[in-house]
Design brief:
about 425 residues; alpha/beta; Dna Topoisomerase Vi A Subunit, Chain: A, domain 2; 3 domains; six-stranded mixed sheet; three-stranded antiparallel sheet; elongated
């Protein structure tokens, strides 16, 4: 049985070994895994304070005893034999024994265990983005022989994360408030927030379409975890038939809303006189448009940010009842978020949806109101050019990339107000 100081020394040496290229490449070390205990007043093991004789003596004793066990070797400082230790290094031919004595699982064993878990999770889930996440994580962990930031090293934390991801995968386009989701997943309405929420959001930011400034709650909404049940806002000649009763929303000239529960209970109808459907990303622009610009033959839908599974069902219900010769357009920010929303609408709802005021002419017209973007943001925009759904938007995307700008919808409101 080793004491606390000996354990600290072994852990420090094993930490350094596991950070080395020898561990990563699974090669026998060709140089020493070494800690400088005293080097002109500096030390890789800060507890070794030669000015405090009690500490110095206890550490010296610990090192000598570990050396006698064959776990490490050491050198005394020149001229200070039996007094000050200069350096300590791990005897790598005794690695297995060092891990056992230190009461620590080998990082290699942990990495192998995590790789098996990631492959198992990849087989369990069905959502494409989740399968991609687990595949990427497995590839990174197995290649680097190191635990990536998205995967907790602690097994309990890892189990919490995987449990939350599986629960998201099983939502199947349904929607739950965050507290109810947590209750169903962990049996505790607050545990999701405590043990998995922040890590889940980081993963979602990487694997779902979102802009850099997308709020956490909007990220979670994309997978069906919401702060509160969503209301779908719209304005136009729409009615809902529930048990032979007709709810006519066309009388509400400045907008209406409906919940997914009521939508599921009834039959949504769109007037045949509607010739244009317009989804608008920003609320201010949505309100401004229906108050000042909306025509009688239009149906305007408030899109908001990246939509939730329930809003997707609303859009699909609109698609099913779209009148003959009616066009559908989308008006969003002229940036990564706006175009990724358009691509998603085309991919998941209706391929024929056209961009509205999302072109180079608008960028030139409002050039004085554009905001600059970073090189990293420009790289994100380049990824949109690979999406076939945006083939007719490449000129505009290239303008954003070359000029390193973006334009938000609200800027157009400022101009109209002036």
């Amino acid at each position: 049985m080793i004491d606390k100081i000996q354990k600290s020394i072994l852990w420090a040496l094993l930490d350094k070994y596991e950070r080395s290229s020898f561990f990563r490449d699974e090669k026998q070390p060709t140089r020493r895994i070494l800690l400088k205990f005293y080097d002109d007043g500096k030390s890789d093991f800060p507890y070794y304070d030669i000015e405090k004789s009690e500490r110095r003596i206890s550490v010296n004793r610990a090192v000598v005893e570990l050396s006698e066990l064959g776990l490490l070797s050491f050198e005394w400082m020149k001229g200070e034999c039996d007094h000050i230790i200069a350096k300590v290094w791990l005897n790598t031919d005794k690695l297995e024994f060092a891990y056992k004595i230190a009461g620590r699982k080998s990082k290699g064993d942990v990495v192998d265990e995590i790789c098996v878990e990631l492959l198992d999770m990849h087989e369990q889930v069905s959502s494409p983005w989740i399968k991609t996440f687990f595949y990427d994580a497995y590839t990174a962990v197995s290649k680097r022989r190191s635990i990536v930031s998205s995967i907790p090293a602690d097994k309990e934390e890892r189990n919490h994360l995987f449990k939350a991801i599986c629960a998201i995968d099983n939502l199947n386009n349904t929607e739950l408030t965050e507290r109810v989701f947590s209750l169903q997943c962990f049996g505790d309405s607050k545990k999701f927030e405590m043990v998995a929420r922040s890590r889940i959001i980081s993963i979602l930011r990487k694997y779902l379409d979102c802009d850099d400034d997308t709020r956490d709650e909007d990220i979670l909404r994309q997978v069906g975890i919401v702060k509160y049940p969503e209301q779908f806002e719209f304005c136009g000649k729409v009615s809902l038939v529930i048990e032979a009763e007709v709810v006519d929303f066309s009388l509400l000239r400045f907008g209406s809303s409906i919940s997914i529960s009521d939508l599921a209970r009834g039959n949504l109808l769109i007037s045949p006189y509607v010739k244009r459907i317009l989804t608008i990303e920003n609320r201010a622009n949505y309100i401004e448009y229906i108050q000042k610009n909306m025509a009688d033959d239009e149906l305007v839908l408030y899109h908001a940010g990246q939509y939730s599974p329930s809003k997707k069902l609303f859009f699909l219900a609109i698609k099913e009842k779209i009148p003959e010769d009616c066009i559908w357009e989308h008006w969003g920010d002229i940036d990564y978020g706006g175009f990724s929303m358009l691509a998603r609408l085309r991919r998941e709802v209706l391929n024929e949806i056209k961009p509205f005021r999302m072109n180079t002419l608008e960028l030139v017209k409002y050039k004085h109101l554009t905001a600059s973007i970073t090189v990293q943001y420009a790289e994100k925009l380049k990824s949109l050019i690979t999406k076939h759904e945006l083939h007719d938007c490449y000129d505009c995307l290239n303008y954003l990339i070359v000029n390193k700008v973006r334009l938000e919808q609200e800027s157009m409101l400022i101009e109209s107000a002036d």
